[in-house]
Amino acid sequence: MKTLVECVPNFSEGRDAAKVAAVVSAITSVPGAVILDQEMDADHNRSVITFVAPRETVVDAAIAGVKRAVELIDLTKHQGAHPRLGAADVVPFVPIEGVTLDDCIALANTAAERIWKELHVPVYLYEAAARTPERRNLENIRKGQFEGVRDEIATNPDRKPDFGEAKLHATAGAVVVGARKFLIAYNVNLDTPDVSIAKAIAKKVRASSGGLPCVKGMGVELKARHLAQVSMNLTDFETTPVAAAFEAVKSEAAALGVGIVGSEIIGLIPKRALEDAAAAYLKVEGFSPSMIVENRLAAAMSTAGPAKKSALTDFVADVAAATATPGGGSVAAAAGAMAAALGRMVASMSRTKKTLAQYETRFAKILTALEADCAALEAAVERDAESYNGVAAAYKLPKDSPERPAAIQAALKHAAEVPLETAERATRVEAALAILEEIGSPSMASDVAVGRMMAEAAIGGALANVETNLGSITDKQVADAIRARMEEMTS
């Protein structure tokens, strides 16, 4: 299965194009790394590079960029409007295709360990990769910036990095590495240079101050343009769309007698986010992405042509082959993905019906959840096969190898956790389908019924695979924790 991970490293250099070009060149020197976008901002003195790469090489590409930044950027001489802790300030991994958020957490940990060992730059983990709740939020880690953390790190235990010594690199500071969902960097420019107004508005709209959920915000000064800016990160655009963030800033600005000059997107934005924004402003009733001709054309073209080989045909052939993988765990994950797909279809079609308009909000929430579950279950098809291969590889280690017992147990634990996650996802899918059975279009009752049966098969099949591996796990604490999660689903 094809895998694709997005990485969006932020570097503390937005004025020297040669240095940024050198960092980009280092990233693209790694096979499979493709630059999608790069932004330089002189006021912020910061650049944002967006690239994608397969799971196998994305960490290599990220570290190549970090290494070049460490060599070229000196934070003791750096000044800009944007807070910063490191030369390579933030390095997030984002799941795109064939990978899950959990996979990106593992990539973040691998990258963090290598950055410390190879570059001797300490690393903090944030967002989904954070090891403590306080470090999920980047602003908590970066509080005080390079200078403040440098002065406190040796004496304040809360400042201790997740990887490395309690001492910042003399010129490169520290790197904050993490895993997250797709983030939209969205700024709204005000028609005033008064940064205190931008800060007041940011405080009103950001989630940490009781504003919009999944919104981070700060006020900054754009000296070159003689403007103040409300700079935001939308960490979940499905929860708080771009249009909602813009309207909130516009409303707060109007209350303070300030207008909007314009807004800007830093980096890339998902097509769906703009589709939703357009639908919101146009007040399109019963809007669905399938109403857009380019989306409909892409879907039609992906299945057109008699010469096109069916991916399902390939998968069935792989299952039928005389090999251990893909096996029951992969099939269970595939069944769960199909159940989620049926639920998505029912929710999408039901929300367009005027007779069911009172449930539109519920359909939207169900659809969002099912999209995430469907993607994770699709990825689990391959992950289950890989976990089995890991167990087989561990058992093939020399019997006198001191690492063999620990390697076997680690592989068995992973091989149990993958189908357990499949069962948990499929359980959520089945619950969503049960709701759709009540509120969805009656004309699709048979689709919901098939979906529920597929979800039940996925749950049962996945749990059977958990049991297979559980019997060989010798760590009672690990085994008990897995059994507790199984009982929570079946109780």
Q: N-to-C terminal Cα separation, in Å? A: 35 Å
How many domain units? 3
| Biggest beta sheet attributes | 7 strands, mixed
The proportion of residues forming helix, as a percent range, comes to 40-55%
CATH first level of the largest domain? Mainly Alpha
Give unreliable regions as ranges: none
Specify the CATH architecture of the largest domain. Up-down Bundle
Topology:
Layout: E1 4-7, E2 10-11, H1 17-28, E3 34-41, E4 46-53, H2 58-72, E5 88-97, H3 101-119, E6 123-127, H4 138-142, H5 145-152, E7 175-179, E8 184-190, H6 195-205, E9 215-222, E10 227-234, H7 242-255, E11 260-266, H8 271-282, H9 293-303, H10 311-320, H11 328-350, H12 360-395, H13 404-439, H14 445-470, H15 476-490
Parallel strand pairs: 5-7, 6-7
Antiparallel strand pairs: 1-4, 1-5, 2-4, 2-5, 3-4, 8-10, 8-11, 9-10
Task: Summarize the structure in words.
The chain is built from 15 helices and eleven strands. It has 491 residues and is of the alpha+beta class. It folds into three domains: 4-179, 2-Layer Sandwich (Formiminotransferase-cyclodeaminase, Chain B, domain 1), CATH 3.30.990; 184-282, Alpha-Beta Plaits, CATH 3.30.70; 309-490, Four Helix Bundle (Hemerythrin (Met), subunit A), CATH 1.20.120. The strands form two sheets. Strands 1, 2, 3, 4, 5, 6 and 7 form a seven-stranded mixed β-sheet that branches. The protein has a four-stranded antiparallel β-sheet with strand order 9-10-8-11. Strand 3 and strand 4 form a beta hairpin. Helix 6 crosses helix 7 and helix 11 runs parallel beside helix 13. The model has no long low-confidence stretch (mean pLDDT 89).
